[in-house]
């Protein structure tokens, strides 16, 4: 039995809209709003439709800023040059948006709008995510993220729901565990922030357990973690197409 919660209801509304539009999942802005409903920290930001003045929309955000183009045709934004970091002020933001739209590889993509966010401080990059396995139900992944995810392949998995003890054990099992103690100028990681973020996805009341019947996968990469905070810099959620929702097999207490 699936418990109805405000977080679940909000997520269902977004996922249904994406499915009605023929998309495999919500855009990054909407995915972050879903994740935030379950307690995952996200950057302060705004979604700006194509014809809205980007300077006015982002006026209350504190630089440096991040600009991301939102399109169902652009999954890996760096490959399309659809993301810009370290934008120093609002005027430069508008200029950067115009330059991004002039990129040849973006000329034919469908444009939803832009995501403008306050840029997270440089910190250790982890990945948290998971999938709904046909046999085991929700499974949480946690490991070294960012550009090193595919290179190092240093991740751990646990069947959900997970506990704080499970998450600390996953971290201790990483080959690059010492990165969390501070490395080459980066501050040591506040493990409690990592635990809280992982519980937001894989805990008994987390996103994976609560939405196991309507999503197939979630990916938070990178999770920027420092000595005082953890922020989900990028979130991707894949829904299940209409008619393929499954019975909840999470085993979570409802």
Name the quaternary structure: single chain
Specify the number of helices.
Answer: 8
Cα(first) to Cα(last) distance is 7 Å
Broad shape: globular
How many E-type strands?
Answer: 10
Fraction of residues in H or I helices: 25-40%
**Count of distinct structural domains:** 2
Describe this structure in words.
This protein has 254 residues and is α+β, with helices and mostly antiparallel strands. It folds into two domains: 44-119, Dna Ligase, domain 1; 124-239, D-amino Acid Aminotransferase, Chain A, domain 1 (2-Layer Sandwich), CATH 3.30.470. Helices cover 28% and strands 25% of the residues. A hairpin with a 4-residue loop joins strand 8 (215-225) and strand 9 (230-232).
Report a brief summary of the structure.
The chain is an alpha+beta fold and 254 residues long. It contains eight helices and ten strands.
Secondary structure elements and pairings:
Elements: H1 6-20, H2 28-37, E1 45-48, H3 54-57, E2 65-70, E3 83-87, H4 90-101, E4 113-118, E5 124-133, E6 137-144, H5 149-152, E7 155-159, H6 164-172, H7 191-202, H8 207-210, E8 215-225, E9 230-232, E10 235-239
Antiparallel strand pairs: 1-4, 2-3, 2-4, 5-6, 5-8, 6-7, 8-9, 8-10
């Amino acid at each position: 039995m699936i418990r109805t919660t405000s977080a679940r209801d909000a997520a269902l509304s977004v996922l249904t809209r994406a499915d009605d539009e023929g998309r495999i999942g919500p855009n990054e802005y909407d995915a972050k709003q879903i994740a935030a409903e379950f307690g995952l920290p996200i950057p302060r930001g705004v979604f700006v439709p194509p014809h809205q003045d980007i300077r006015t929309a982002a006026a209350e955000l504190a630089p440096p800023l991040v600009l991301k183009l939102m399109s169902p045709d652009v999954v890996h934004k760096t490959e399309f040059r659809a993301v810009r970091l370290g934008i120093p002020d609002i005027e430069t933001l508008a200029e950067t948006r115009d330059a991004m739209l002039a990129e040849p590889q973006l000329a034919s993509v469908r444009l939803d709008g832009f995501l403008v966010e306050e840029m997270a401080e440089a910190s250790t990059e982890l990945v948290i995510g998971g999938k709904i396995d046909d046999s085991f139900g929700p499974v949480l992944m946690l490991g070294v993220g960012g550009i090193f995810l595919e290179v190092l392949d240093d991740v751990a998995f646990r069947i959900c729901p997970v506990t704080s003890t499970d998450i600390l054990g996953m971290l201790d099992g990483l080959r690059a565990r010492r990165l969390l103690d501070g490395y080459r100028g980066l501050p040591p990681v506040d493990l409690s922030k990592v635990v809280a973020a992982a519980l937001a996805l894989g805990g008994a009341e987390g996103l994976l357990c609560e939405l196991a019947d309507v999503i197939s996968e979630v990916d938070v990469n990178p999770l920027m973690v420092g000595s005082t905070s953890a922020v989900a810099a990028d979130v991707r959620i894949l829904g299940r197409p209409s008619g393929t929702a499954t019975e909840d097999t999470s085993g979570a207490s409802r």
